[in-house]
Structure formats: C-alpha cells, structure tokens
Amino acid sequence: MSIKMPEPDQAVLARRDEIVAALRKIVPGEGVISSAAEMIPYESDGLMAYRQPPMVVVLPDTTKQVSQVLKYCHANGIRVVPRGSGTSLSGGALPLADGVLLGLGKFKRIREIDFDNRAVVVEPGVTNLAISQAVDHKGFYYAPDPSSQIACSIGGNIAENSGGVHCLKYGMTTNNVLGCEIVLITGEIIKVGGKTAETCGYDVMGIITGSEGLLGVITEVTVRILQKPETARALMVGFADVEAAGECVAQIIGAGIIPGGMEMMDKPAIHAAEAFVHAGYPLDVEALLIIELDGPGVEVDELISRVESIALSCGSTTCQISVSEKERLLFWAGRKAAFPAVGRISPDYLCMDGTIPRKQLPLVLRRMKEMSEKYGLGVANVFHAGDGNLHPLILYDANKPGEMDKAEAFGADILRLCVEVGGVLTGEHGVGIEKRDLMPEMFSEIDLNQQQRLKCAFDKDGLLNPGKVFPTLHRCAELGRVHVHGGKLAFPDIPRF
Question: Where in the chain are the domains?
C-alpha cells in the first residue's frame, strides 16, 4: 500500500480479546466478527487497490447498540471506522488495524413514508434505489441516482454527498436530505433537520452531508421525494470529436436549458458499454452525449427541438431521440453500467472523480490524452457533463510491476489539473484516502486547520475514521492553542472563552 495510514496503537491491539468480549456483550449473537477469514470481505471498500484487515467488525442493528459501541470505544480510546455498503470509491471505509469497523448493513428498514409531506424516513442501510421503489406506486421517486444505486446505501450517500446522472437539475444528496439522527463518538444521540425544508439554527445537515464518517454515525435519514415528471425523453447524440461534444454541453446550458441529466462518454467507454449492455450506441463516434429532458409534454417537445438544433450547430454526426420509456431507460442503461463494462476490457482500473468548469472540458480532455501517452496507460472517460464532474477510468494491470504506481501518479495529475483550471478535487466520491494527500493542492494550511477545528468540535480525540481526508492530522489541543509572544497575549481586551 503506497498510502500511509495511522500507526496502530499497540496498547489497543494488546487488549484485543478484552475489546472483542466487551463488544459481544453490547451486540450479542452474530453481531461481532473477529476471525481473520470472516473479516476478509471488510478489508477494503470499492477502492480495492488498498486493503487493510480491521481489528474487529461490529454489526449492530439498533441505534442503542451503536450508541453503546461508540461510548465504549470513546471511553477506551479505540478508533472506529463507519461503513455502509462498502461501495465508496475513495477508500472512505478502509479499516484500521487497531480499529473497530462499525457496519450499518443491518439498518435496512423503511420507517415511514409520508406522501403528504413528500418525505421518507429510512435507516442508513437502505439502498438508494429501494427508496424510489418504495414510493413508485404513487408516482414518486428519490432524485439522486448514483450508478451504484442498486447497491449503495443512503447513509453512505450522505457521507460522500453522492450525485448521479440527474443531479444537474435535481441536486446532489445535500439538496435532497432533510434530516438525520446521528450518534456522536461519545454515544450521545442527536437529531438534526426534519421533514421541512428549512430549520432554525446552524446548518448542521450541511456539515454532516459529505463529512465522510469523521463527525458521527448516521442511524436514521429523512429524504425528500419528488413526483415523477409528466414526460421524460432522452437524446443520444454522437460527435466526431470530444471538443465538439464539450461545446454542445456549454451551448445547451448557455441557452438556459437545464436537462434532467446530461452525460458524456468517450470512444473507449462507448465501445465497452455497448458490448456490455447492447443499448444501440453508435460505434463510429469519438464522443456520445445522453441528454434527458423532462416536464410537461409540450415543454419537452420544444426543448428537444432546441437541443437538437444546438447539437447540429456543434457538428453532431448522429442524433437519436427516445420514442418510448423502454428506449429511454435503455439509453441510460449503458451509461449506468459503464464502470462494470470497462472492467471487462482491463484487468484493473482506477475510477477518478474531479470537477471542472464546463468551459474547460475540451482543454482537460486534451491534457488527459497527453497524460495517457506520457504514462503509457489507457483512459476511458465517463462523466456528468452538465456539471463538469469527470470520472476518468485509468486502465492498468496490477500484476505488472510498476503499473499501479503509474496509475496513481496519472490519477494525481488529473486531479491537480482539475484544480489548476478552477475546479475541485472531488464531485461526489469524497476525499477518503485517495485524494487525502492532494488536499494541499486546493487548500492552504489555514484552510485545513480550520476544517480540522470543526472535526475537533465533534470528535476531539480523533477516534472517528482517522487517516482520511486530512493529509496531516493535528491534535485538537494544538489547533486550539493561543499564541503568547513575549509573555503577552495578542489583543488582550478580546473576551476569551
């Protein structure tokens, strides 16, 4: 493993048998997994290039048990790594050798469906897709739809602020979550938000969403559901070069049209997805845009006509418009299966995640092509074109000496490029361990220290998911210290608490 994690606490490891016994009293039966063989499925998440067996796995099924586990770990100085479905692509749920892996997989109940308030209350282990399926009979759905929605859990979606192909118009997870029940490292249970869009006080929901398990453990979630649009149709538009496709994206948004989703794939991704799903993708194009428009039927017809005209003006070579719901879903099936499809053409790949201003898309794609030649590794591009969220898939073979290192370096250069052109390190996969050491590329030391002060307010001992997000984790006492020079405090008249 090229990424360094915190050194194991040998004193904690020496007490492993005692810790396992104590946890079995809190979560009896099959709720504690401690044998090496049984813990193998938990040694990594979706970023499988990095692996680390946990000290012990705990699978509670009630909020009370989560509270008691965290209270015990806090009292005994034991690190804890929360885990949902394990689909994270940034190593956010990578275990620690001296840590408790706290799995929320048993929290799979839908507690309440409230159509009057357009809200659903669920446990964190409920999958993203299951929420939409639970309300489909009334014509409702949950808007964020990551490609892994059949498997990823809503708790993990909140931890990483997941998006999906429809986040352009309907927002990320943070725009669709109304409330949470959270257990702090001390075992204290708090509730933030509710069924209303606005709540008084600090925006704690905004802090928790995207916090990557560093601040607390989510045990209940309230999400907003939306009524399905009257009409939804998709266009599949091919281009002879990726620059033309990028220009088409910019012109559509510039015209004031906000599609329900707008995705792009380059030639390697198109061929992989078509061979996997047989969605009818054109194979003689360099770039493919899938653009979905939704709303009242008359409006959709008008918008389709406008988008088609824009595509032709940008040099599109093919344009197919869905004529049925089955065909619309087939267009999307290839895009949603792009990641596993690419897995068929390469022994291994790293799925990157960075976001750029839309206007920089042609430049970034050209630079990535140059990097591909520099490193001698292929790359397939699949991304949310509408909001500039890139997902380059770097193709390599881990069995070939040095290729993993080259893939990591290639990925780091892509993320540096995103920041260089005015973008950010992550769009929806989170920082985790993958982007942790690149955080100084985007944030100053002052920025990072301030972010860590927020963590200290929730977890002053740094026991929740340490080793993630921050390249250098300071002790909270260091971040809170007051500088004294020459025996005198600066600004002595300011009240200090």
Answer: 10-103, 110-227, 231-436
Provide the whole-model pTM. Answer: 0.91
pLDDT at residue number 496:
41
Topology, domain 231-436: Vanillyl-alcohol Oxidase; Chain A, domain 3 (3.40.462)
Helix (H) or strand (E) holding 348: strand 348-351
Give how far Cα 246 sits from Cα of 90, 92, 359, 427, 469, Å: 27, 31, 8, 18, 31
The length of the chain is: 497
Per the DSSP assignment, residues forming a β-bridge with 485 are: 488
Give the integer Cα–Cα distance in Å for 440 and 64.
39
Interacting residues of 98 by C-beta distance below 8 A, sequence separation 6+ = 8, 9, 10, 12, 13, 55, 78, 79
Cβ-based neighbour number of residue 134 at 10 Å: 18
pLDDT digits (tens, 9 = 90+) for 373-407: 999 999 999 989 888 999 999 999 999 999 999 99
Q: Where are the beta strands (DSSP E) in 175-275?
A: 177-183, 189-193, 217-224, 226-227, 231-239, 261-266
CATH number of 110-227: 3.30.465.10
Amino acid identity of residue 22, one-letter, is A
Level-2 CATH architecture, domain 10-103: 2-Layer Sandwich (3.30)
Q: What angle do CA 444, 445, 450 make, to 5 degrees?
A: 100
| Cα→Cα distances 124→94, 172, 243, 403, Å | 18, 17, 41, 37
The token pair at 168 is 């352009």
What one-letter code names the amino acid at 369? K
pLDDT tens per residue across span 85-139? 999 999 999 999 999 999 999 999 999 999 999 999 999 999 999 999 999 999 9
Question: Tokens in use for 290?
Answer: 């899938």
